[in-house]
UniProtKB/TrEMBL annotation:
The keyword Hydrolase applies. Keywords: Hydrolase, Protease, Thiol protease, Ubl conjugation pathway. It is an enzyme of class 3 (hydrolase). One of its GO terms (biological process) is protein K48-linked deubiquitination. Belongs to the peptidase C65 family. It holds the Pfam family Peptidase_C65. It catalyses: Thiol-dependent hydrolysis of ester, thioester, amide, peptide and isopeptide bonds formed by the C-terminal Gly of ubiquitin (a 76-residue protein attached to proteins as an intracellular targeting signal). The record marks 250, 252, 294, 299 as: Interacts with free ubiquitin. GO terms for cellular component: nucleus. InterPro entries: OTU_dom, Otubain, Papain-like_cys_pep_sf, Peptidase_C65_otubain, Peptidase_C65_otubain_sub1, Peptidase_C65_otubain_sub2. Residues 85-272 form the OTU domain. Residues 1-20 are annotated as: Disordered. This is Ubiquitin thioesterase.
């Protein structure tokens, strides 16, 4: 029963009464970008629970992860297990491709002690430096990143005072001050390569974006900033710039026949200009040095049996 002031008995408000203006304003202020920022914050909080580079684990952990999920994925994981034995996870913070590449490549040098490969990639790093300078980048914007990468590259070559062990490589790869700097090194190298060969990359960029972004805009918004995810354009550019073959194995739900599933992969083989001449070096230049597992939006490191 209402009293004369239009309020219900027992202190209950009238459901037909207008919502206070201040509350309406509050809801109107919750825009799509606010929701997206909140979701990004949640993802970032979850990502921080995972180290930049995880421990090496048996591939069976993937099967356990998808145990109650897609039967197609479970079959693909079984097929994957015929060739690959282990996985090393990376943090899903948008930098997973570069962090995975960094660790896998340095681990390869540490285990192979391939001095010819070290010399070759060092030469290509110098070419990348010259590319950025020719594009108008000031040295101070990228020099520290380049210096730290070369320092880490030299540290995995054994027999020196600065040489490190595999355990120390893992520790360094989990150190944000080191890992982030090397990610930025890769991002500058990738951006420089895309800009240097803009005519080659432009059609791919237009196919990915709203068809209005220029190569310059793409690099500024989708390559150089930390946290921006990588796709085939980034991988192609980095592989070509450094001359490092990369294999990406795709774990997704795509299939033509559920009874005969296959796991697709793509090998990113550097353009000839960045590879050593025939017989010049001990590396098998067309064989992938780095192998990454791609699940939609994320890259981890894969190991052969």
């Amino acid at each position: 029963m209402e009293n004369e002031e239009g309020l219900q008995a027992d202190g209950e408000s009238d459901p037909k009464a207008p919502i206070p203006v201040s509350e309406v304003d509050a809801w109107e202020n919750i825009r799509d970008d606010d929701i997206m920022q909140q979701q990004s914050a949640i993802r970032a909080e979850e990502a921080e629970k995972v180290p930049f580079i995880g421990d090496k684990e048996p591939l069976s952990v993937l099967a356990a992860e998808y145990e109650s999920g897609s039967p197609i994925l479970l079959k693909k994981i079984k097929v994957l297990g015929e060739k690959y034995g282990s996985i090393r996870r990376t943090r899903g913070d948008g930098n997973c491709f570069f962090r995975g590449f960094m660790f896998s490549y340095l681990e390869h040098i540490l285990e192979s002690q391939d001095q010819a490969e070290v010399d070759r990639v060092t030469t290509n790093v110098e070419k990348c430096r010259e590319t950025l300078q020719a594009l108008g980048y000031a040295d101070f914007t990228f020099e520290d990143f380049f210096a730290l990468f070369l320092e880490q590259l030299e540290s995995v070559v054994q027999g020196k005072e600065t040489s490190i062990s595999h355990d120390e490589l893992v520790i360094r790869s989990r150190d944000q001050s080191i890992s982030d700097y090397i990610v930025m090194f890769f991002r500058f190298v990738t951006s420089g390569e895309i800009k240097r060969r803009s005519e080659f990359f432009e059609p791919f960029i237009l196919g990915m974006t709203n068809a209005t972004a220029t190569v310059e805009q793409f690099c500024k918004s989708s390559v150089e900033p930390m946290g921006e995810e990588s796709d085939h354009v980034h991988i192609t550019a980095l592989s070509d710039a450094l001359g490092v073959p990369i294999r990406v194995v795709y774990l997704d739900r795509s299939t033509y026949d559920i009874d005969h599933v296959i796991v697709n992969h793509h090998d990113f083989i550097p353009s000839a200009g960045h590879l050593p001449s025939a017989g010049g070096g001990s590396s098998e230049t067309t064989k992938p040095i780095v192998t990454l597992l791609y699940r939609p939006g994320h890259y981890d490191i894969l190991y052969l049996k």
